[in-house]
TrEMBL record:
The keyword Transferase applies. SUPFAM superfamilies: Aminomethyltransferase beta-barrel domain (SSF101790), Folate-binding domain (SSF103025). This is Aminomethyltransferase. The glycine cleavage system catalyzes the degradation of glycine. It is an enzyme of class 2 (transferase). Belongs to the GcvT family. It comes from Microbacterium sediminicola. Residues 299-378 form the Aminomethyltransferase C-terminal domain. The glycine cleavage system is composed of four proteins: P, T, L and H. NCBIfam families: gcvT, PRK00389.1.
Amino acid sequence: MRPSVCDRENFMSDLRTTPLHERHRALGASFTAFGDWSMPIRYGSELAEHRAVREAAGLFDISHMAEFIVEGPGAAAALDAALSRRVSTLAVGRAAYALLLSAQGGVLDDLIVYRLDEWWFLVIANAGNRGIVAHELGIRLAARGVRFEDASDSFALIALQGPAAQAVLGDCGGVTEFERPPAEIPRYGAARARFGGDEVLVARTGYTGEDGFEILVPSDLAVPLWDELLAAGESHGLVPAGLAARDTLRLEAGMPLHGHEISAEVLPAQAGLSWAVEADRSGFVGENVLRESAGEARRVLVGLASEGRRAGRAGYAVMDAVDGAIVGEVTSGALSPTLGHPIALAFVDPTVSSLGTALAIDVRGTAIPTTVTALPFYRRKK
């Protein structure tokens, strides 16, 4: 039985909202449940929002993400032992993509770790994994005597993405006193700045495959910062963008999504994330399992490209093109707005994972031809 409109309204009203929720309503956003959050999925046309990010700029509310502070003389060494990558080698003002692994080697979450000072780190985690990260990372760090704080409710996070992102930020007069000019912030770098009298963090990171920034701001300043960025971006073609565009953008860029391409049941190597695990060191959680399973034959993540308009979706079977045997499963798929044809990420048997291998996707009973292709599907122009 389908839930009634009243039931859905009651369900949505029980979800958490970001400090920008009323701004999204005023802009005519449609909302969806994303974990425990009510988030804007689109403001009008998700296709137009996607294209704006590729061609100009888009503004995303990602305040549902979780933020953790790690601080103390032993913070760097403690994080090294807790995560898949050595963050102690990061220079102040730089960031790294790292994995929080289980003792069994599976991916509990993928994180961005920023080194803000010699003994001070910021960890940003996925919204749906806030509790898992708080528990697991908290235990690992507490054992080493460093301060660990869940600061998620104190901050909002706004993503400004697209080729015009730097110009938009430069025209936003309210963000001032940069440690270094936005043009000099490197990819996976960050700089402190001021907005409304408070310190904000401007990081050159993102989840769209485009240049851009993610701005961490105290929650009470989220609305004025959002308004100023929209005003500054009007002449540059900036539009507010929702989760639907964010998903197709990250899919084109071949970026994994927790719960789809990565999970506690997936080893990093299966998802093409071996580069995020430093194998030349020891002593981190999950290390022994990864070494022991290195030669095992498990399904691996590949990119699939098809012709026509019918796209494979998460959960659709991937089949051998000759005998129709099931050899895998789609984890994410869509008709690519940028490329104009269907693309998908899928876990398949290693025997059919080579580039150029012809396969098929079962799209509602029809075998749609597809080909294993290199990732990412889309790469921005430098």
